[in-house]
Design a protein that fits this description.
By secondary structure, the protein is α/β, with parallel strands linked by helices. The chain has 2 domains: 241 residues, Type I PLP-dependent aspartate aminotransferase-like (Major domain) (Aspartate Aminotransferase, domain 2), CATH 3.40.640; 134 residues, Aspartate Aminotransferase, domain 1, CATH 3.90.1150.10. It contains 14 helices and 12 strands. A 7-stranded mixed sheet has the order 1-7-6-5-4-2-3, with helices on both faces. Strands 8-9-12-11-10 form a 5-stranded mixed sheet. α4 links the parallel β2 and β3. α3 runs parallel beside α4. The radius of gyration is 21 Å and the shape is globular. The structure holds pyridoxal-5'-phosphate.
Length: 384
């Protein structure tokens, strides 16, 4: 079977998977072991210690690489552990250009952890890629893109950024957590690295915290494998198994997330008590054309601002929701609602937050795969 030739749905189920050699188990067994017997010092069956490698983790790493159309995958203890490993490629004095509107935890890792080791982060609005050219310089080593952005659903043109990164010989890393490879494949668009919080859509069932990186370049993969083993923030075998199980239904879940997302975005846009809805599927979205070009659907992440909304008003609405659970995170089968100003983005100073449009009244929805009618009825009662 030439796996690279398989279509997406087949890859989601078979990518990097082989029946277990010992008993033919169809599902990769959970190799809950720290170490492996050797017949003679250094003679083993490919695994010697589970920080450097574990067969269940390998299965997940191969599966994620397969669905991203990449060659090398690495699985970590969390999405942030994956980003942390990536930043360890850098040295003091190196610069990173990042989108201004990004996941709060990534911002915190950049500013509160890596700045003190001498890495410089420059935040720009990448809605217009010209802004990158303005700050790029000889010290720039990496461009960090998140698209759609969290929580403003801005879209960044990955191909356009890749042209800049290639011209300047800078690594381009894309956080593909929101779109998933079902909707968008950054390596195909010219990125060097894809990062995932597999905690979200890849796992899909809100039962694990896992991160992943995928690359095509062998040298880059070797460096990252070294960091993974040397720093040790690996994904455990049980979490690898659960994430693999999630990936097998990624395509069917994403279809429903997209359908429900569209229904709810349209419902909210027509609602008299809603001021503004952020969703890349609207023709009025500033980068709708780019979204249409690089994504095969618009996903189930939506943010909105209630009319005349205040902090208190937004809190009241999210408290009223019954089917949408008020919780951090996203991408699970169940619908979640969040209030970025007090939850996911509370760590970003208010002025910084508001520059990106994250006003106090903003509400973020992760639309799940329940019946859209029930979700709409829930929003209706909460808005009223
Ligand atoms: C959740 C998330 C992360 C961080 O991942 P964890 O698994 O929580 O460490 C990074 N980027 C985005 C876009 C996320 O949503």
């Amino acid at each position: 079977m030439n796996e690279k030739k398989l279509r997406f749905n087949s890859k989601a189920i078979h990518g990097g998977q082989h029946p277990d050699k010992a008993y033919g188990a169809v599902m990769p067994p959970i190799y809950q072991t720290s170490t492996y017997a050797q017949t003679s010092p250094g003679e083993h069956k490919g695994y010697e210690y589970s920080r450097s490698g574990n067969p269940t983790r390998t299965a997940l790493e191969n599966a994620v690489a397969s669905i991203e159309n990449g060659t090398y995958g690495m699985a970590f203890a969390s999405g942030l552990a994956a980003i942390d490993a990536l930043l360890k490629l850098l040295e003091p004095g190196d610069e990173v250009i990042s989108t201004g509107d990004l996941y709060g935890g990534s911002y915190r890792l950049f500013k509160k952890m890596y700045e003190k080791y001498g890495i410089v982060f420059r935040f720009v609005d990448m809605g217009n890629v010209e802004n990158i050219a303005e700050v790029i310089n000889g010290k720039t080593k990496m461009i960090w893109v998140e698209t759609p952005t969290n929580p403003m659903m801005n879209i960044i043109d990955i191909e356009a950024v890749a042209r800049i990164s290639k011209k300047h010989h800078v690594l381009l890393a894309v956080d593909n957590t929101f779109a998933t490879p079902y909707l968008q494949q950054p390596l195909e668009l010219g990125a060097d690295i894809v990062m995932h919080s597999a905690t979200k859509y890849l796992g899909g069932h809100s039962d694990v915290v896992v991160g992943a990186l995928v690359v095509n370049d062998k040298d880059l993969a070797d460096q990252l494998y070294f960091i993974q083993k040397a720093s040790g923030a690996i994904c455990g075998p049980m979490d690898a198994f659960l994430t693999l199980r999630g990936i097998k239904t990624l395509h069917v879940r994403m279809q429903r997330h997209c359908e429900n997302g569209a229904a709810i975005a349209e419902y909210l846009a027509k609602h008299p008590k809603v001021e503004k809805v952020y969703w890349p599927g609207f023709e009025s979205h500033p980068n709708h054309e780019v979204a249409k070009k690089q994504m095969s659907g618009f996903g189930g992440m939506i943010s909105f601002v209630p009319k005349g909304g205040s902090y208190k008003n937004a809190v009241k609405i999210v408290e009223q929701l019954k089917i949408f659970t008020l919780a951090e995170s996203l991408g699970g089968v169940e619908s979640l609602a969040g209030h970025p100003a007090s939850m996911s983005h509370a760590g970003i100073p208010k002025e910084e937050r508001e520059k990106s449009g994250i006003v106090d009244a903003l509400i973020r929805l992760s639309v799940g795969i329940e019946d859209a009618e029930d979700l709409i009825a829930d929003l209706e009662q909460a808005l009223n």
